[in-house]
Amino acid sequence: MNGARMSTLASLRGSIARIEAPTDTGLPNRIALGHAGADAMLRGGLAPATLHEVFADGHQAGAATGFITGLAGRLSPRKPLVWVRQDFSDRENGVLSMSGLTELGLDPRLLVTVRAADVDAALRTAADALACDALGAVVLEVWGNVRQLDLVASRKLTLAAQAAGVSALLLRIAATPIPSTAETRWIVRAAHSPPGSASTVWGAPRFDAELVRNRHGPVGRWIMEWKCDECQFSEPPAYPQPLAATPAHRPHQAQARAVRLAS
Q1: How far apart are CA 231 and CA 50, in angstroms?
Q2: Taking the CA of residue 253 as centre, how many other CA atoms within 13 Å lie in the half-sphere pointing to its CB?
Q3: Looking at residue 204, what is its pLDDT?
Q4: What's the rounded Cα separation, in Å, for the pair 115 and 18?
Q5: Contact (Cβ atoms closer than 8 angstroms) between residue 170 and residue 53
Q6: DSSP assignment, residue 115?
Q7: In Å, how far are 119, 199, 247, 258, 261 from 251, measured between CA atoms?
Q8: pLDDT, tens digit, for every residue of 21-57?
Q9: CA 4, 7, 10 angle in degrees (round to 5)?
Q10: Which of 4, 57, 187, 263 could form a disulfide with 210 if both were Cys (CB 3.0 to 4.6 A apart)?
Q11: Residue 154: which of 130, 136, 135 has the closest Cα?
Q12: Would you give the end-to-end CA distance of the chain in angstroms?
């Protein structure tokens, strides 16, 4: 009897290991971020209708807000987005700028912001919003370590997202990560601008994004650049300085000029 029981237990462990083992094949219904390295690690991209977490220190709140805006733009490009904030977030993190969101590629006409009196009200509002299948995503922004956002609350948000097919994005500022049911967890910082003069470094926003939780594979860390026009992330170019294109329509003139310079 003990031998049969041990054999069954070993078989079950093997089945679980095969299910959880990462593979090179992509998963269905994934939304690509556009960054080749991150998408490969996520086996195709982010899973919609699940919970994703973004953490940042207090002085990196702006970078985390920009990053989660990009995630929302990828997960919900044409559907309304509800952003739930605590009522003091405007003082701590600044007011959400509609012009800034427009520059990032998000349509402010599809954004509904809600200011909650406390964490409990914010959680209730986010859960109610996730029940509306007309939405594309719900962002819940919470400042600091709060006891209400425990594993049970995370589970409720995940179930609500799955039931209605709405993506849940949890933005945690100045908070310590704790166990949750999140599909992914990111720690975001502002990335350094490319080298160059002040007139040339102004360009696409860059994020130092560290994937510290991935339910379907390994984790990693990348510099991710947000392309506002394409509304997707990408890998920074290897050569940050612009290069002049070869005059393909005048090859003989280019060759003659090279000969003159060499002589």
Answers
A1: 21
A2: 5
A3: 86
A4: 45
A5: yes
A6: E
A7: 66, 31, 6, 11, 16
A8: 444 455 678 999 999 999 999 999 999 999 999 999 9
A9: 150
A10: 187
A11: 130
A12: 91
Tens digit of each residue's pLDDT (9 = 90 or more) over 76-101: 888 999 999 988 877 777 788 899 88
Residue 162 contacts by C-beta under 8 Å, 6 or more apart in sequence?
49, 50
Pick from 20-34, 51-65, 113-127: least confident: 20-34
Closest CA to 146 of 86, 60, 198, 65: 86
* Domain 49-235: assigned CATH number: 3.40.50.300
What is the Cα 133 distance to its own chain's centre? 21
What gap in Å lies between CA 190 and CA 140, rounded to an integer? 21
Q: Which residues contact 136 (CB under 8 A, 6 or more apart)?
A: 72, 75, 76, 77, 78, 79, 80, 81, 166, 167
Cβ atoms of residues 33 and 211 within 8 Å:
no
Q: Which of 192, 171, 151, 158 is nearest to 51 (CA)?
A: 158
Average pLDDT of the chain is 84
Tokens of 72: 């929302």
CB–CB of 55/172 below 8 Å? yes
